[in-house]
Each structure stands twice: as C-alpha cells, then as structure tokens.
Amino acid sequence: MPPTNALSTALAALIGPVLGLVGLGCDDEVPSFRAVDEPEQALRPESARGVIPEDAHIVDYWIDARLDEITHEIHGTLRMSWRNATARTVDRLPFHLYMNAFRAEDSEWMAAARGSHRGQKFAPGRWGFTSVERVELLGRTPPRDALALEQTPPEPGVALSYAEDDDPTTMTVTLPEPVGPGESVVLELEFTTRLPQVFARTGYYGDFHMAGQWFPKIGVLEEAAGWQAHTFGLFSEFYADFGDYEVFLDVPADYVVGASGVRVDEQQPSDDRKRLHYRAQMVHDFAWVADPNFIEHWGEYEGIRIRQLIQPEFVDDAVVHLEAQAHALASMEARFGPYPWSTITIVHVPKGAAGAGGMEYPTLYTTSNIAKADKLPAWLLRERLTGVFTTVHEFGHQYFQGLLASNEHAQPWLDEGLNTSANQLVYWDAYGEDPWVAQVFGHALTTKDLIALSLIQTGDRDPLDQPADRFDPLVGSYGTVTYQKTAAVMLTLRELCGREPWDRAMTRYTQEARFRHPDGQLLERTLVEEIGGEDGRLALVGDGGPGTVWLDVQDYLDLGLRGAAIADFRLIRVGNQPLIGGAGWHPRGPDEPLPPEPPQAVLETQRALASLFGHAPPIGPPEWTLAERSDSRDNKVTRLGDAEVEGFVIVQRRSSFRVPVEVLVEFDDGERSTVVWDGQADHHRFEFPGRRVTRAIVDPRMQLLIEPRKLDNAAWAEHHKDPPTEPLSTWLGDIDEAANLAVLGGLGI
Amino acid sequence: MDASSEAPESAGRGRRHTWPLRALARVVMAPGFVLALWAAQLLLAKLLAGPGRAAAEAAMRNFTWFDDGHRLRAVTELLIEEPAVAAAIATSLSASAVLAAVFSVVAAPPILTRLDGERSLAWIFGSAGRELPAMVVQSGYGLVFRALCTSLAAVPVALLGAGGLPLALLLASFPLLVLDRARAAVVLDDARPLHPMTFLRAIGHVAKRPLWWLSGALIESLKLAVVVGALALVIQAGPSPGGIWVARAAGLAGLIFGLWRVALAVEDRRA
Ligand SMILES: [Zn+2]
C-alpha cells in the first residue's frame, strides 16, 4: 500500500495548481515503444533466483474469467488445489472474499473508513462484491499426474456447503470429510465479482479496470495457530500461501492488459474479444489490469522484463519510473537477495482513479504520478518524491510481502515498515548517504527529515508491533507508526551499531524468510544475534570494563517495537564552573616532609590577628597542611583561565525511550570531542575538568531517527563570551520582514 | 473637463521616447521624499515582523540550530511545535496588506503633489486630508475595475501557459495605471472627485496611450519582480547577516518603481 506521505501529497497539491496555471499540455500523438519479449518462464532461472524450497508450495489456482466491461463484472470459474502441510486435521476451509468489503456500509472495512480512504471518497451506489455461486469438491489427494487443474474433470464434483462469516469478507466451506496432514483437496468454485468504482486500490474508472483481490482466496493454515483468514480491514490485506496460478482472461479485444506473471498465450476467438493466458509461479496472489488507453513502455533489468502501462498524458515519466525501478532492484537485490520472478509490471492509473494508485501485488504494482516539478525552476523546487517514491515503495513490497510473506494482519510493520526502511536505503544506495528527496529554495529535505516530520505528529500514539485492527482510524497513527516509525526504529539501530551488523542481519533474515511466512520473532532474534553477538549487547564505547556504554539490542527492540514512546533528548545545561581547587586543610602524606616550623613571633602574630577578626588562626594539627586559595578563585567563571574551569554538559531524557546517544562537545580551544551516554538514567552530566565548553550538540550526526524533535539538541554554553545569533529564528524573522517588505511593496503605491 | 488630459499627443516622436524617463526624473529629483518613504517602509516592516521574530526567538529558548543541511526540517519542526510563530507571521502579513492598502489611498495625493513639483510640506501633506473622500471613492472604483482586469489576466495564462504571461501582466497593470490617472485628474486637475465618469474617462485615456500602458506595465512588473525576488533570495540564502538588507534595498527599488509609475500620470499631463 502507498505510504501516507502527507508531505508528498502537500507537494503535489502545491505543484499541481502552479502547473495548471502555466498550462502544461501534451500533444495528442500517441507514442509507441519497442517491446521487450515476454519471458518464457514466470520465474528467473535458478542460477539467478536461487533455490525455492519445495515445501513452500501449498496452493495452486486455475481461473477462467470473463470481464464484462459494461457492468464491470468478472465471471469466473476457479479450480484450486490445496495441500495440508501441517500436522493438523481440518474439516473446513476459510476463503477471503475481499471485494465484499465494498458491498455495504456495515462491512468492517467500510465501517472503519466511513466513506473515505486516503483522501478518496466512495462513489455513492458504486458498490462492489464477490458472490460465490457454487463450490464443489473435485477430488481428494489426487495422484500427482491427475492434478492438472486445466482439464475439465471427468465426473461432476460433490457440492459443498458454504456460508459467509459474520463479516462478508470471509466465507467458510465445510468439507464432508476432514483433510489430514499431507493430504490435499481440489475444489471448483464459480463466482461473480462486481468491481466498485475505484475508491481504495481496486475497481473500475471509465474503461480502466483494476482487478485486485478479485477471486475467492483460501486462508493460511498455521501449524500452531490453525486457520488464519482475517476479516478484511482498513489497514491490512495480505496473508496467503505460495503457489502457481494459471489464469485465462476473456476481455474486449482492444483492451491492453497487464497481470501478475508472464503471458503465455493470446487468442482472439471473435472480433471483439480476446482470450489471454497468464502464468504466475510461486506467488501468493494474482492481480490484473485492463484499459484500452494504456500505452506500453518497456525496459529490462538483468533479464527481468519491466513493462509499464501508462496513461498517455504521463508517458514522458516512464523513463523516470524505470530509473527508480532500476535503483530499487540494484539496492534490494544486493541487500535482500535476488528478485526471483522474471517480470515486473508497473501500472499508472488514470486521473480520477488515484485511489487505485500505489498498491502492490505479486510482480505487478500500481504507482502514482510525478508532480511535474521539473517544469518549475530548480532554484525553487527539485524533488524525487512524487511518483518516484511510490515506485520504489511498491516495488519494495515484492520483497516485504511478495517474497517474505508475513502476516500483514498480525504484524503490519513487517510488511509496510520493513519496506519503508528498505525504501530509504534504496535512496541512500542510489543518491548517497541520507540524500535529499526534495529541495525547496535550495534547502534540502532528506530521507531522515521526512521520517522525523512524520513522527513528530503522530509517532508516539501507538506501539508499532500490534495487529492491524488494533489501530484506531480516528487516532490517525497507523500510517506514521507502521511505516515511518518502523523505519525509524530499524534505521536508528542500523546507525547505532555501525550499519554493517544490521545489514548482515537483514541479509540473513531475508535469506531465511524467502518464500516463507516470517514473523517478528525471527527478525528480532536475527538482529539480536547479529548485532549483539552472544550476550545480545554491543559495546558502543569501551571494551567491557568500567565506563563501557552498551547497546542492549533486545531492550532496544522491546522499547522500539512494543512501546508507544519515541526518543527525546534535551540539553538541560551547558556551562562551566570553577575547577575544584586544592585550598584548605589536608592530612600530610606519609612521605611528605614536615614544613619548617615558622618562627614563634610569626605564630603569635597570626594568633593575635585571628582573634582580632574572630576566627581561627591558620594553625592546625601537626600532620595537616594548609593550602591557600588562589586569588583567581574569586573571579567570575568567565574570567578564569581555561585550565581553572570545569566544563559540563547535562543531557535529559525526556521520554521513556531509553537509547544510547552521542553528544558532541566543543571547547574554547577549538577542539571537539564526542562522548556517548547510554541514555538509561533520567539525565546525565558530562564533566570536563580543566576545559572550557563552548557548545554541545546531542545526536550531532542525526543517528537517532527515532528522535524527531531536535530543536532542543544544541546550545551554546551559558555565559558564552560571544554566542552567535540563533540562525533559525534569525532566518524566520528575516523572511517575515522580507515578506512584509514585499507585501508593503513600495508602501502599496 | 481638464484640458491637459485631453491634450492630443502632439509631441514629436523623439520627445515621446524620453517621456517615461522624464517621469523617472521627477522621482529622482525628490530624493528626500523617496528616502523618507523608504525609511517609513523599513520601520513598518521591522515593526510588523517584530512579533514573528520574537516568537521564533522565544520558541528556540536557549537552544540553537546546528545543522545547515537540515534547515528545512528544523523550520518545519519549529512551526509545527510552536504554532504561535506561524500565527505571528501570518498576522504581520495581513497587517502589512491592510496598511499598504490604506497607505495607497491616503498617500496618493501627497505623492502626486510632490511629483508635480510642489515643495511646501504643509501643502503636500495637507492634500492627504483634503482629497481623502475622493481617493476613497476613486480607489473603490479602481478595486472593482482591478478585480475585472485580474480575472481577465488569468485567461491568457490559462490558454497560453507561460507564454501568456506578458499579456497577463499588461492586463493586470492596466487598472493601476487607470487609477493613477484618475487620482491625478482629481488631485492635480480638479476633475470631479467622486464622479464615476472621472474614473471611466481615465480608462479611455490610458487605453489610448500605448506607451504609457506599456511602460507602466513594465515598471510595475519590475517592481513585483524585485520585491518578490528579494524575498526569494532571503529564503534561499538561509540565515545570513546581511540577507535582510537585500530585501531592504529591494524595498527601495520597489518604492522608486512605484513612484515612477505614478509619475507617468503626472508627466502625461505635460506631454
Ligand atoms: Zn506499502
């Protein structure tokens, strides 16, 4: 799903009207591009994609579907072979009927959405649904060669009873006999899906038809927890088993069609209809799109066919999306292993169907349009966020969901959140460390900045490791917490540990979780082991002795994943005080020689003087010596020499999020030094005897992405001789004054 | 009504070439007046921006921003966390707009009088009071006409895009020149102060003088470009000690351009 990036939306809203004003037209000539051949196989060769575990293959589908482009209905016959790979015995099969979310106002999905989703309004009366007309059992544990789903069965199947559950987005099929471990069943279903007008991800808009979550799909049987087929809610979509799809689509002859997998055949039985055959392998879903207005744009990346289906008015953007796609592939293959499939299809939705933009399906995703910022002068605005980020993000889901098929309902952060983390790294890998995503008047907004600005607003309202339906849509934290906060927690850990251990952990996790249903525990365990080593903690400073600053990885993850708080540090004080002096009485050391006894006359005088002023004479026990206080002690700290002061920096932890943090301290002599606090206590004082502190900066390298508020992170020392003016408020004041001068514009003459 | 405004443009071609420059000379010949206006403008802007500046300073407490590469993020954080800053800035801008509008009405007679060569301060400033009702009424007509022209100006931009911009500027400047003319007719030539015909005649008058129209539009566009450009520069430059003086200098330039445009209406009477 698309990140709810308020900034990107704001940017688009800002640029849109400006460009509308300068009237960017496009000529009517429809360009065409040289096609890249469709690969023969849906999977890349094993040498490129690696080995796919045999036991990951659970379910196969054969679907014959016809699109009625007038009523926007899909009539289909579906045969499915499902294997019980657990030690459980089941007597019922749950199916998702996702499209029923859009059937009525009282479905759980619509009740949560209340008629709007990501700024899109539901078109009144344009309901969508899936109705199942027939369910039959065709066979039980058939011999392997009889598994050919495309063959019409020799004898009719046994009708099965089925009923929708409380929420219409799932139904349960009752089996006449239970299915035991290792056994399989072959079912045939007949269904009709009516697409809603595009509102959220799927549906039609004019001739455009986006068929996502359009067929009855079986749930996942887990060894420990049994059947998992969640009610379709606002914030989660996927959880399904891997398998192969053979899909036949009967569509109008002039429609351009894109689908998961590869196209293996195309026939035209009549003048006005065509029949397309698609094959997708080792995927957990199948989606397709059809629109007569699509222009096809082609590209290739190491044998992967990249096909874009793009609306004529945005055809010039195809190269930008292709470049973003290539950046994403380069970064993610290097970090998370090879992309296993041979195709990628990128769909650009038409104007008016924006609700379908920014959605992921196996080997096919929809993106969003670029806001044409390149038509504005570069000194005013440059950006690589609109459209580009969506492409990077939706492709990222090919890994974090498509390949690592976690339960999005139970742990949405493993899907959207890890993907968002990976998206940032795509930018880093492509453009350098923490690069800008937008420049306004030449001032950069970087990947870290975007996360921070999102976290500031709703980042502390929810913990991120919780099921999708635990997020209250009215609290409004799902997007920030699931996407940005996960990225902040993950990338902060990466920065703290020195990046390489985190990278290693993620490589290991993605290797182990390919074609699996990984959960958060696996990821946490991997991070703790790779970063924390045997005892789960990493020494950030020191070698284990006193003064060592530890990063306890599990403790960090517990706070980051299961606490609502985000980190927040503040400088309480930065200053200098007189160094502890040596004046006063001290016992003489054993080797210290006795000072010469002063003459008696001197002693008498001292006694007399002391009694005159009413205090004790400077005479003490014989083993003690008295050191005099130096004159400079009486001076103000500003007048003391640097060697006579002790600089101090006090940092406060203002939230319950305990995390180690760097503090950069600048001294009067121009030197700078970085110290680290473990962040465990409520506050901490760093002391610098004999050195005068001039400035301190908490988290100077912005390693803590999980700490979005940084205005209180730096301060000049108290009583600084000549503190520079505060640049931010000066700048804002200057802008205000310049804007006033502009409005006054020659005093309005 | 007034003979001079109806005077045919009998001047030779050579004279007409230098006509806008003679108008500029009227401005240059009144340096004290220009500088006084500039000082008033600087003072006003400084005062109006005071609360915003103070709010931003207070919001930063004793902290200081430390990373130039993340300035935009910091400003955004400040504006999100301290809404009073944005509120103060927005308020100052609307106050500026109101003051500019009021000034434009009240100061028109003194400006016209001074550009016409009058040196008596009492007479110059007295004109503001004497002509106030007329200025309010004529400016009211001007506002209606301006709304009409501004919506017309949107058409070429919508049709031609950036290419339509010159035509749009020409259309958008026209009502300003007409108002200059109407005010000049009232203040300098005793035209009927409240009558709509005074304004309607001014429309025809300027429309028949392409040189005025063209140069006026050019001057007004330059004025806009200079003040808006300076604002953009201040934003782009980031915190810099001398940055605000760019905007202040641009304010002076804008002021001179504005007076130059008004001087066209004064000079026209001599043409
Ligand atoms: Zn997503």
Quick summary of this structure?
Chain A: GO terms for molecular function: metallopeptidase activity; zinc ion binding. The complex is a heterodimer of chains A (749) and B (271). Chain A has 749 residues and is an alpha+beta fold.
Reading off the top of the CATH hierarchy, the class of the domain at 58-241 in chain A is best stated as Mainly Beta
Taking Cα atoms only, what radius of gyration of chain B do you get, to the nearest Å?
A: 21 Å
Number of strands of chain B: 0
Order of strands across the main sheet of chain A: 7-6-10-2-1-16-19-18
The greatest inter-chain interface is formed by: A-B, 62 and 85 residues
- Given as residue ranges, the uncertain stretches of chain B (5+ residues, pLDDT < 50) are 1-17
Oligomeric category: heterodimer
User: Helix segment count of chain A?
Assistant: 14
Unique ligands: zinc ion
- Write down the overall geometry of chain B: globular
Number of domains of chain B: 1
- Main sheet: strands, sense, barrel of chain A: 8 strands, mixed
- Average pLDDT metric of chain A: 91
Structural class of chain B: mainly alpha
Label the overall shape of chain A. Answer: elongated
Distance between the terminal alpha carbons of chain B, to the nearest Å?
A: 17 Å
Overall SS class of chain A:
alpha+beta
- Terminal Cα separation of chain A, in Å? 53 Å
Query: Strand share of the residues of chain A?
Result: 25-35%
Walk me through this protein's architecture.
The complex is a heterodimer of chains A (749) and B (271). Chain A has 749 residues and is of the alpha+beta class. Among the domains of chain A are: 58-241, Immunoglobulin-like (Sandwich); 411-566, Neutral Protease, domain 2; 569-578 and 638-744, Sandwich (Immunoglobulin-like); 584-627, no CATH class. Chain A is elongated and about 130 Å long. With 271 residues, chain B is mainly alpha-helical. Chain B has one domain (33-41, 70-270). Helices cover 82% and strands 0% of the residues of chain B. Chain B is globular, with a radius of gyration of 21 Å. Classes of the chains: A alpha+beta (749), B mainly alpha (271). Bound molecules: zinc ion. Zinc ion binds at residues 1, 393, 397, 416, 419 of chain A.
